[in-house]
Design brief:
The chain has seven helices and no strands. By secondary structure, it is mainly α. The protein has one domain. Helix 2 packs parallel to helix 7. The two termini are about 20 Å apart.
């Protein structure tokens, strides 16, 4: 069947593109953007690697344990960062979900790429609910809102705000987070 392999490659492309943009965000002038962008790049590229169809790459058990160790370290870092910014709570849940999926794949390596897995149904369901809620919340935050410049007549004068670079576009960062949330749902559904 070609469906799961094609979906896997689409997921790889989505996650790799998201990880690439997060690397670009690491060049931001805003320190908070740079700090979160690194973790999000790791998540994007890690998800891309995990989504490679099993027909192309069937990692050995030790590779899944390596994923679990890397994302376990990312979870510890996010746990430490939660003290200063609750946004890192989402990073903590995401990193723990990656550890969970990697451990499930290590337990049943033949389950890779949607062939059924060894995940706990209750935990998988709770993670699915969390990420579905996060995707809906992120989508609502992307809805257009009238800005101050639009309500004051467009503000086309010469003294406008600073020009934002691609690394500083908060709406693009939200799109990346939304994309990774959708990808996480797709990966959890195959578990």
């Amino acid at each position: 069947m070609h469906g799961p392999a094609q979906a896997g490659w689409l997921l790889v492309a989505l996650c790799a593109a998201t990880g690439s943009y997060c690397l670009l965000r690491m060049r931001s002038r805003v320190e908070a953007q740079r700090r979160t962008a690194g973790g999000e790049a790791l998540m994007g590229f890690g998800m891309a690697l995990m989504a490679v169809p099993a027909a192309v790459l069937a990692p050995p058990r030790w590779a899944w344990l390596g994923y679990a160790a890397v994302f376990g370290a990312a979870a510890l870092r996010a746990l430490w960062a939660v003290r200063g910014n609750r946004h890192h709570l989402h990073h903590l849940v995401g990193a723990c979900a990656m550890v969970y999926m990697a451990v499930a794949m290590a337990a049943t390596p033949t389950a890779h790429a949607g062939h059924g897995g060894g995940g706990a149904p209750a935990l998988t369901g709770a993670l699915l609910l969390y990420f579905a809620g996060y995707v809906l919340w992120s989508g609502v935050r992307l809805l257009p809102v009238p800005t101050l410049a639009a309500t004051e007549g467009g503000g086309g004068g010469g003294g406008g705000g600073a020009v934002m670079g691609w690394a500083d576009r908060t709406e693009l960062a939200m799109v990346c987070r939304l994309s990774m949330g959708i990808a996480m749902i797709a990966m959890l559904l195959t578990l």
